[in-house]
Amino acid sequence: MPSSVFITKNNTIYVTNYQYGKVIVWIAGNSTPSNTISGNLQEPLSLFIMDEGDILVDAGNPNGLVARFMSNGTETAPAMYASSYCSGLFVDINNTLYCAMNVLHQIVKCSLSSSSNTTIVVAGKFNESGPMPDELNYPNGIFVDINFDVYVADSANSRIQIFQAGELNATTAAGAGLNGSVTLIYPTSVALDADNNLYIVDLDNNRVIVSGPNGFRCIAACSGNAGSGPTKLKMPSFMAFDSYGNMFVVDGNNSRIQKFSLISNSCDLTTSDPTTTQYQTEYRTSIDSTINKITQISSNKQTTASTITSTVTTNITTKIATAAAATTAAVIPTKTIATTAAAAATTASQILFSNQSCFSPNVMISPPAPSLNSSLEIQRSQDIYFISLIDLNCNQSFSVSTKWTITACTSICSSQIELDEQIITTYSELYIPLGTLQYGIYKFDLTVTM
Q: Which keywords annotate this record (predicted)?
């Protein structure tokens, strides 16, 4: 079970395995681990990789220390002695190590440049939890900016706290206690980018959110429900970013690492679309990357210079076959759904704008489907899942919405069907649980509106 992830400047991935007490290392571009580090680790929860390559790892209880390994995995003297395990680790630009002592409700630090192992209290009261500005309640992730302000995921208080350098009283950056803020439920990881956008892993809401000029918005697993499908997270705990801006999330209860790729041509550079990086146990230690979906691309920022309305409709035909519709002897006719497999066609496009800064988006759907006469057969006992690849061409702020419709077909497709409540049609991917649709022929339309 993965518990934390760290990615270096050269995009080497480090993952702690809580169950087996190991750190597993993947060099960028390789699916096979380059190294496995164990030492005297027991249920490690966090790690941090130094610029020179040294690996700092929470050694877990009952050790009460932060272990230090050289880049080749050789263990050296501990980096810190703590009073409990560290659920979050961070090293600032002054080479100071911070530890979130979760069960003791306190953040401590010590200098890695000093021979002394003396720790200094940064935030919280030792073994005393509470909701006051000088208190914490089971803190986890830590981030320290260049001004040495400490951002803390104050998990059980459902808030993000900022402790300015040298201050023991915090201000709330997000969550409980801040009027008009986003609602958090047990946030566990926090990070700040170069534009001061605040990223938060919201564990019990099973999502990742980010701040911006217009407040917070969800960027990963935004359905609100936990799950194991490619559109969902289940108890996510930590996140890390590679040099390209891609985000990796520890999807704890799914025992995997989810990768969300930065959309480089988006007007909103903080928007991400996910692929899946599968974390395996020690019995199969590999990372498998496959594109599974593109999440809804959205931005709350509005342009005042022009009004943009762009709609592209893409058609996919899906056939749920009856006995008479079976196409081969190998198909079980009464249990078959069929979908087509060719490029989707654009059927409508309208753009209204006052300048030529934005153009119609390009939309592709997988699996593709061209017509009623060319369809893929899918078992009715299987889930149906469509993904869309949306290429946005715009150099100004905009918002995007997506909408799926399903139409029943005979010789023509004319009767839009009423959808079950569990089918969410406003994401850029469409998931239909097994057995939802009756036997027949269906057409699926995706409309993308800018």
A: Repeat
pLDDT for 282-302, tens place per residue?
222 223 222 222 222 222 222
Instruction: Tell me the C-alpha distance between 122 and 415, whole Å.
Output: 64
Would residue 238 be called left, alpha or beta, if left means φ above 0 and alpha means ψ between -120 and 50 degrees?
A: beta
What SS3 state is found at 203? helix
122 within 8 A of 109, measured Cβ to Cβ: yes
Q: What angle do CA 153, 157, 161 make, to 5 degrees?
A: 40
The three-class DSSP label of residue 343 is coil
> What is the mean predicted confidence (pLDDT) over 205-224?
91
- As a whole number of angstroms, the distance between CA 152 and CA 136 comes to 9
Tokens of 99: 């530890």
Taking the C-alpha atoms of residue 404 and residue 384, their distance in angstroms, rounded to an integer, is: 14
In 136-150, which positions are buried (b, 16+ CB within 10 angstroms) versus exposed (e)?
A: bbbbbbbbbeeebbb
Q: Is the pLDDT of residue 207 over 60?
A: yes
In single-letter form, the type of residue at position 169 comes to: N
- The correct CATH number of 2-290 out of 3.30.300.20, 4.10.910.10, 2.120.10.30, 3.50.50.60 is 2.120.10.30
Share of the chain above pLDDT 70, in %: 71
Two tokens, residue 373: 């006469």
- Residue 446: predicted pLDDT: 83
Instruction: Report CA Rg, the chain.
Output: 25
433 pLDDT band (50/70/90 cuts)? confident
Range among 160-169, 341-350, 413-422 with highest mean pLDDT value: 160-169
The mean per-residue pLDDT over the stretch 30-56 comes to 92
Cα-based angle 311, 316, 318 (whole degrees, multiple of 5): 150
> DSSP readout, 171-187?
EEEEETTSTTPPP-SSE
CB atoms under 10 Å from CB of 383, counted, come to: 13
Residue 217 and residue 424: Cα distance in Å, rounded? 19
Residue 123 class from Cβ within 10 Å (0-12 exposed, 13-18 middle, 19+ buried)? buried
Confidence of residue 261 (pLDDT cuts 50, 70, 90): confident
Q: Is the pLDDT of residue 342 over 50?
A: no
Domain ranges of the chain: 2-290, 309-449
**For tokens 């002394």, what's the residue?**
116
Which segment of 173-177, 406-410, 418-422, 440-444 scores lowest on mean pLDDT? Answer: 418-422
- Measured CA to CA, the distance from residue 342 to residue 39 in angstroms comes to 53
